[in-house]
Structure formats: structure tokens, C-alpha cells
Amino acid sequence: METGLSVLIGLFFAVSVYLMLSRHLVRILLGIAILGNAVNLLIFTAGRLTREVPPLIPEHLYTLVTETANPLPQALVLTAIVISFSFFAFLLVLAFRAYQELGTDDANEMRVAEPEDDPLPPQGY
Amino acid sequence: MAGSNAPHVDLSQAMTTAPVSAADWLIVAPSIITILGGTIALMARKNTDAQPKVAMLFLTLLVGANGALLLHVLQKGVVTMVMGNWLPPFGIAFTADALGASLSLIASIVAWCAGLYGAVTIDGTGRRYGFYPFLLLLMTGVSGAFLTGDIFNLYVWFEVLLISSYGLLVLGNDRIQLDGTVKYGILNLIGTNLFLIATGLLYGHFGTLNMADIAMKMRELEAGGSVGPLAAVAALYFLAFAMKAAAFPVNFWLPASYHTPNVAVSAVFAGLLTKVGVYALIRVFVLIMPGARDYFADLIAVVAILTMITGGLGALAQAEVRRVFGYLVIVGIGAMLAGIAVGSLQGVAGAIFYAIHSIIVMTALYLAAGIMQLMGGSTALRKLGGLYGANPYFAGVFLVLGFAVAGLPPFSGFWPKLMLVEASIDAGRTWVAFAILASGFLTTLAIGRVWIYSFWRGGPEGVADGCAPIRLAPAAELSSPALWVPLLLLTGLVIYLGLQPEALLQLVQRGAEGVIDPSAYIRSVFGEP
């Protein structure tokens, strides 16, 4: 089970890196969304895929009796999902605003902050 | 429902039963104060007059709390507080040592200065769109990152400060800011995702996220001589934090974005954000995985050298004051990485000292750039000139900051550079020592040019020296003390630390000892064995 998921995570990473290598913001953002999911799956798998038993303690007992699912990675993944989702939403709006203002979604043509025809610094003193 | 017939449960096996001492609450106070202040400032969003007052009140409280925390740490040694009273390593631990507490204090002083300065430079619109809430929440992230003792929690604080920094960076919505924020935003988010990947793998290996616990297990593992897959984890951590710290070759987001927002925002960013990355590098590579640091020492040294040299050359190639400063931030990052690459006590102490110096001086330089813009109407070197005639005292202050950033005595930049050069020569890394000195030379050239062009010469390009300079009517903001107090305070610190470095030297020495030998840190988390 872990092996299968590892291969899947590897595929996710490959796809996201491929998308992020693009110059177009939309593809970069899709790459980031997939990267976030790849990381979440990775954490989930890193916590070991144990038995599908919820970590509930039976009545009248104080400890777990059988091997159960590891709850910690799920808490971590939940945190990471919330964070990556909100960041993705922000960046999506940001990219749209940048497209509106700059008229392009090609990262190579976004040269407002660092203009290509910048004057050279003064030579000599 | 705990009925009377419920059997007795011994909680002491899972939780600390002793109440948390009042002084230990100081560990979480910085985060709580800033969240509270940020929330109140957010509620007062439309009351643009009250906002700076609320924010300054909470920033003052923050400085006070951090000062008290540092004193507490110096008296008691490393202190720990675990959320929910769970016994470590189960709860999220907040652990304050000399390194974290001193950086947190300096960070809060810098934020205080920027907040006061922002009261002048941020207009009503900027306040309505949340300058002060973002600033306070940024400080939540920064303080949390400096004080947490849990590596996943460190990631969460990174994200808190990152999302606040997005808000600050894009505040104002100019074309140039949108452009800068796109690059800053995407590259930094990828950086934190790499951090999360590394943390996931580390968790998969050790089954714990508590830094002290990992440090302990890591040392057992290294004693057994099998680091194996953890070299890959360490490589991911290095890439992630180098991206955060803007080390070569992943530094390009910094000069693309730091000159775009309001100057008060640039000042906080230049002071704090990259140093959080360096702090995380020290924490992870010196405290948690010293074996990996040894393994990667050569790589870190090469990265440090290239960072310093590209930063210096980049600064020389810029024709705009704030973009020059952006590259000077990168030079400083290289110097701190050099300390980590050397890894000796003096090297790490030098890196911490340099971080503190760099936080103060870079913020002060950006604040000065804002005043130059108000005085000369521009930040382009060709359009500036004659500022010495306008205000010779300000010219003197700028010169002090310029000498400090270049590492010339008798200012604060001299001592950490001396320590770093000495440490790298002792460790046989003469190339690193050479790069530190060469980057100091390049910095002197770059900052000297800024000073000569903006202050020394008679007027902007085209005005011959000796002509009566054309005086712009001084901007109304220039008479406000809120503009000058932060600059003078930080410059005062730069001079004081240059003349009286002894106290800070002892402090950073203690900070470095605390991360190189983690026994005090581990003892603080797990209690006496």
C-alpha cells in the first residue's frame, strides 16, 4: 500500500514540477495546487498506512487495545490543506489582478518591477 | 462525565500536573499580544486615527514582553511551555533559548520602529486596507517562529508570517507591486512547501516533531553511523531555508520585490523575513542535525561565497537606492551562511551577531531611503543630489549606517565580520574569509556611491557642482518626529553595539553554545533525567 502511494506521490511531484516550469502563471498555479496535494499525500503516507480502525478507546478501558490508524498525520494534513488552499486562493486572485494590470500572464514579460531597459548606474564618481 | 464512581486516573503519566509558573507564560506572550493587537487593529479598520495608536501600544507591549522573556531566559536558562500540558514530546512545545529570545527582542524593536514610521508614510487608504493588522500578524509569525520548539509548528508560523507579508507587499495595489508580489508570492510558497515535504519525511523517519526529541534521536542515529535517507531530508531543508533567506542561486525573488512596496514595509521585510530563514537554518542544521551540517559544510560554504559575491556585484549594478539595499541584504545572508558553514562556536556566534546587526542596519537603511525620497523626490541615483546641503546631520546618519553595513569600525558590522573571518581562517576555510572581506569591499563601493551621489554632490545629474542647489520645498512629512525617531533609535543602536559590543558578544556566545550543545535545550523540554 505504501509503495503504491509512493509511486502516486512521485507522479504528483513530476506533474507539478513540469507545470511550474512553464512561463505562464496559470500553469504555475496549477502546479502549485498539485504540489500541495502531493505534499499532503506524502505526510499521510509518512505516518504509515496502518489498519483502517479509528483510534477510539472502548468503553471501560483507558488504552487502545488494537493497532489503529495514526491520527497525527491526519491533523498535520488537515492543517496543511487549510493553509495551502488559502494560499492558492490568494495567489489566484493575485495572478488575475496582475494579468489585468500588466496585460500578460507570461512571467518573462512581467518586467515592471525590474525593467529591461533600466538605466545603468552612474559610472565613476 | 467524571462521576464519583469513575476509577482514579493517574494523569501525571501523560500530563504535567504542576501549574505553569507565571514567568513561563512569557514564552507565549509575544504571539498572544500580537494576535490580540492585530485583531483589535482589524476591528478598528475604518478608524484610521486610532489604528496607529492601538498598534503602537501593542508593539510597545511586545517589546516589553520580549525584553522580560530574554531576562527570564538569561536567569533561568532555556525555558519550555507545552500546549495543553501534555508531557513532551506529545504536546506542541514552545522553547525559548538565548538565540530565539534575543532575535525575537531585536525583531520586535525593529517592528516598533517600522510601525511608528508607518504612521507618517502610510496614508489613510493603506491603513484602511490593513497595514497595522498585517504588521502585527507578521510579528505573530516572526515571534512564533523564533520561540517554537516544534518543527511542524515552525512551518505554521512561517505560513502566518508569509500570508501577512503578502498583504503588506501588495498594499496599495500598484502595477509594480503586483509584479513584485507575484514573484515573491510564488517562489516563497514553493519554498515553504519544500519545508513541509522535508518535515513530512522527517516525521516518517522519527515519528516525532518535537525539535528536542528529534535532536536526541538524531544524535543516537549519528552515533550509530547511519544517516542514510536523512541526507536527502537535510538537502530539502537546506534548499527550503536558503530560498527563504534569499541565498544564491534562489535569491531572485528578493531584488524583484523588496523595492516595490511602501518603504516602511520594505524596512520590516529587509530586517526580518530573510533572517527568519537563517534562524531556521541554524536551528535545523546546528541544533537538530549536526551530522548533516558536517556533511553539507562544503556546499554551504560555496553557497555562502557565491551569495556574498553576487550580492555585492548586484548592489554595484543598481541605479536605484532601494534596489541597491535589496542586494546588500543578500550580502549579509551570505555572511551568516558562512558562519553556519564553519560551524564552530565562534562561527555560529558570529552568524547570530551578524543576523542581529543586519536586522537593525538594513531596516535603518530602508527607513533612510524613505527620507531621501521625501527630501529629493526620488530614489534614483541620477535624480538625487545635494542632500548634504539640505540636511548635513542626516548625511552623517546615513554615513554611519553605510559604514556599519560595510563592516567598517567602529560600528556594529565590524565585530561579527571579525568573528566570522577569524572563525573561517581557524577552520581552514580561507576562501570564505576572503569572500567576506571582498564582499565588504564591494559593499563599501556600492554604499559609498549612494552616499556620494545623493549627499555629496551639489545636485541631481546635470547640475554642476558649486551651483546653488535647487531646493525643493521640504515635504510636510519631514517635520514629523515619527519619521526621525525610529531612524535615530536604530542608528543609536548601531553605534552603541559598535562601541560596546561586550554584552551582545556574551549573549550570542550563549546562543551559539545553546545550539551547538543541545543538552540544556533537551533538558528543558524533557526535564531532568
Automatic annotation (TrEMBL), chain A:
InterPro entries: CPA3_antiporter_subunitC, NUOK/Mnh_C1-like. It comes from the Bacteria. It is found in: Cell membrane. It is a multi-pass membrane protein. Gene3D superfamilies: 1.10.287.3510. Its main location: membrane. The keyword Metal-binding does not apply. It holds the Pfam family Oxidored_q2. The chain crosses the membrane at residues 6-21, 28-46, 75-96. Keywords: Cell membrane, Membrane, Transmembrane, Transmembrane helix. Belongs to the CPA3 antiporters (TC 2.A.63) subunit C family. This is Na+/H+ antiporter subunit C. It comes from Roseibium aestuarii.
UniProtKB/TrEMBL annotation, chain B:
Residues 150-442 form the NADH:quinone oxidoreductase/Mrp antiporter transmembrane domain. Keywords: Cell membrane, Membrane, Transmembrane, Transmembrane helix. Its main location: membrane. It is found in: Cell membrane; Membrane. It is a multi-pass membrane protein. Pfam families: Proton_antipo_M. The chain crosses the membrane at residues 25-44, 56-74, 94-117, 129-148, 154-172, 184-203, 223-242, 263-289, 295-317, 324-345, 351-372, 393-411, 431-452. Belongs to the CPA3 antiporters (TC 2.A.63) subunit D family. This is Na+/H+ antiporter subunit D. The lineage of its organism: Bacteria, Pseudomonadati, Pseudomonadota, Alphaproteobacteria, Hyphomicrobiales.
